[in-house]
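Our example pasted here:


***
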Amino acid sequence: MDNGPSSYNRLVLPILLGAAGVAGLATWAGFQTMWPTSQVCGSTFIGLPHRSRLLALTYDDGPNDPYTWRMMEVLERHGAKATFFLLGGFVQQKPEIARALVAAGHAIGSHTWDHRNLIFASSAETRRQLQQTRQAILEATGVDTAIFRPPFGGRRPASLRVARQLGLQPVMWNVSCQDWKAKSADEIVTRAERQIRGGDVVLLHDGEYHRIGVDRSRSVAATDRILSRYKAEGYDFVTIPEMMETQRLANGN
């Protein structure tokens, strides 16, 4: 029996290379489940083609008292509408904020009940999270939500399949300001300016999923500056449903 290097190369190297390929594929697949603009796990809305003069500001993890109120004040001052992806558990605690968002003309969507990472959730758990949140929003506002954003951006094909079965359109983003970890409004604005090209869905936060009351003053101040700059440059700020309708009309649907 040949036990030399040539035998090793024939027998062992293919196994090692195969294992490396599987590991690489798993890493790639994991990356795709979290990357906001990836469409590998299923189609999601991420905005319009660049050079559009529309921008959509979106806020996750609310309602958050008092910072959702303050965000609404800034938006009203600029005459802008935005989209808020709400946590069902917080809507249950602060239904008056959810109602105020709707009354002010903002769009609202589901962000699950308690910010569960759906990559690790079964289809049954995903369905429960979305149905429970939808019901809480409906009871608080009278709005039957039609859009949904997965927490952390994490999703699998099964997650999106459940959402669509419930009539929810998944929405991601293509501009992340990383405001949840920013130390200043300047930092948030700089990140936005580096990425905005027009037609963008901009991710910001009016809350934080661990608890109500987390300080989002930097996000409020950054929103004020983003609105001032881009409105002066001729951009219009619209809700996600309005941006989706623009896309639908452009596609002739």
